[in-house]
Amino acid sequence: MGSEGLSTVRVLLCALLFAMYLVPIRPAIAINLNNSEITNVENLLKAKKYTDADSKALLLLEQALQQQHLSADAFSTLGQLLQNASRFEVSKAIFNAALERYTAEGNLDKIASTLLQLATSERNLSNYSTAMTYVRRAMSIAQIEQDDLLKARLNLELGIIHQDQGEIETALEPLKQALRYFRENKMANEMSLSLLRIGDIYSLLNQAALAHTYYQDAFDSIENTGTPRLLGIIKARMGALALKVGDINQAIGTIDDALTLLLSTDDVGAIAQAKMLLGNALVESGDVAKGRELLKEAMQFARSSGQAKLMKEGRLALSQAYMKEQSFELALAEARTGTIDARKNRDIRGQLSFLSIQLSAFVSLGEFKKALDIQSVIQQLRERLLDSENRSAIEGLQAEIELVRQSRTLEKLEESKQLVLAQAERENLQTTLFWSVSLAALLLTFLVWSRYKQRQQTIILRREVRQQTLTLQEKNQELERAYKTLEEVSLRDPLTGLYNRHYLESQLPGEIRRSQFSVKQNTNANKAKQDLLCLLIDIDHFKRINDDYGHMAGDKVLSAFANVLKEVFRQTDLIIRWGGEEFLVVCRQSNREELPELAERCREMVARTSFDIGQEAPINITCSIGFSLLPPDKEDDFDAAWKRTFAVVDYALYATKLSGRNGWVGVIETLSSHRAHPTLLDTKFNFPGSRIATSFNNVASIKWPDTLDK
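That's the diguanylate cyclase sequence above. Prediction below.
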């Protein structure tokens, strides 16, 4: 064989060996390929091409799910990259895919870690309820696995979630638990982050000195070993605290140092937060133009990443900047948008902040009527916020009363124990005396004297027992009276004497369940009085009464109006002061066909009643009513049934006001088949059709509001 033949054989052998080698390494090539694609996503994030990075990550996710060639760990790595770049929506999808893989593998440790990552993404998107669910699921696994490190990290996340929701006192305890573990195990970065979050809480409580101490401790603990990212975040918090106490120059310098540290990292979310703080500080110092540009940059990032909290803070600062520039229309536009977002997120404090800016802007523009309307809304929101805080205080007081009651019970048991011991001692002494008399007659005189003394002690003891018993009875009676007084205060409106929302929330679930059970047992709905009826009643132009005659006159009208409602409705009906000039009535064991009659009776009696307000002559008022069957259609869940019903009656009440007031609009029942021409109410609440009644000319004359948020 010549040299050319040997060369050919060598080539064929090499090709064969190479082909055999390809078979076992094909999965490795796939993994390397996937790692390369993950690196491409990372490069796009570093280049700040966030839209391209999101698209690439989602495409990689779809391909991996179809071909099953990407491991759960690879999903987790990709999700972490996206989360670090504040791409929280896309990171949720990636982490969910990882969670499915880990669940299929039965890897509890990785499942818990992924649930923690999902909670972080949801929290940054202000989806606090979902984030809390993920934390609880992960905490259950940590309890089963007895993983103290995971518990500490979950406590840290739990504290941050409570803090972001404004639940300050609730947030402090899990943060301190996390700090205790990290400090005992000398985990510097985690300990520093816990100190930082505790400092945030004291800052919110306006305890600036204590907050600064925690921030300084957080910085000192990692000054020589910590990452620039965490050091920059702590510096930014220090600057925010200086800005809050009015030290503008100190705030600008500290936040600028923080921004320098953060710009050397890839944490675009922290950079945006620092820019927002610096922009706010510059606005306060008078450099409004430069500060406004930084605020716009931060808001643009918050909008693209879906961070509602950062967007709210930036919009609030930007609207304040416009106010300083006297650009009142621009400030109004930002404040209105912020108010709508806060209302969607049920953020009462956020609404108050933005409404306060609207109030200042309207006053500056000379639109005093609109300013008065805004002031009225602010007052209502403050009452709601105060009502929520009072509820928490009442619950705390009830807990204290229960604690006192338990303490009294323990004291009573202890005294009973002492009595039993005394009784046993007495019996023992009687036995001793008996044997003494039997053994020695010489001791007779001594025994008589001893028995006399014993009887004296018994009389004294019984007297003391009787006195203690009477004292305990008096204290129990006092405690019972205090409890009844507290219960009465917590369930009734002090001005009108009507029940309040707390009472409704405690009674309504049972009423709905009884009504639904009655409907199932008796299908003859036309004859049996088994319905729940709901009417929302509002005094027309009540604000004018306060403006023209004063708030004391308004209080007299409210009290007298409550008496009129008591005459119109039965004693068994629930009459609730809903808030302000609104009253809610729930009629039990009624027939839905009675709704128009009840509404008209109420409207007519209010219209012909003269209300004494302490002036020379009484006044006459009217009212507007919205009503509905409770619930308007079949609902098994109480929360869904009540929220849906209240939305319907509120919508109907608003329609009454738009249609001219002094009347009523409501839903008698919903239909099972679709109507050819549905009303706006049917469309809004997704009813197939409904039977509507009104005091106006006809249903076609009703002016429906476009949305409840208006």
